[in-house]
Amino acid sequence: MRLSTQSRYGVRAIFDIAYHSAGLETQVKDISRRQGISQRYLEQIFQKLKRAGIVGSKRGPSGGYFLGKKPEDITLADVIRVTEGNIRTVLCVNTGDSTQPCER
C-alpha cells in the first residue's frame, strides 16, 4: 500500500503528540521541529484531523493540539481515512501475464 505524504505526516504527527505531550497541548512548531515537517503543512493536516475528532485544539499562548481520544483508541486506519479519503480494498487478479497491470 502506498500512502500519500499527507498520510505519512499525519501518522507521524499523531505519534509525536502521543509520545511527547503527556496529555497536554503540543504546539505545531515543536512537532514541526521534531519531525522535520513544515508548520504550514502540519496545520493543514491538523485541520482535517480536528474535524474528524482525532485531535482537538486549544487557542492561546500555551495552546496547541492534543489527542481527541486515548492513544490506544486511534488506529492507523482512522488517520489514513481522514487524510486519504475513503479506503476501498480492490481485488485484482490478472490471470494472464503477471508483468502486466491488472485490468480495471
Mean pLDDT: 87
Structural category is mainly alpha
| Overall 3D form | elongated
**Approximately how much beta-strand content do the residues carry?**
5-15%
Describe the strand arrangement of the main beta sheet, using strand numbers.
Answer: 1-2
Relevant CATH superfamily: Winged helix-like DNA-binding domain superfamily/Winged helix DNA-binding domain
Structure notes:
By secondary structure, the chain is mainly α. 44% of the residues lie in helices and 8% in strands. It is built from four helices and two strands, in the order αααββα. It has a two-stranded antiparallel ribbon with strand order 1-2. A hairpin with a 5-residue loop joins strand 1 (55-58) and strand 2. The longest helix is centred in the first third of the chain and has 16 residues, at 5-20. 20% of the residues are buried.
Primary descriptors:
single chain, 104 residues, mainly alpha, Arc Repressor Mutant, subunit A, two-stranded antiparallel ribbon, 4 helices, 2 strands, 44% helix, 8% strand, elongated
Task: Briefly say what this structure is.
The chain is mainly alpha-helical.
Topology:
Blueprint: H1 5-20, H2 28-35, H3 39-51, E1 55-58, E2 64-67, H4 76-84
Antiparallel strand pairs: 1-2
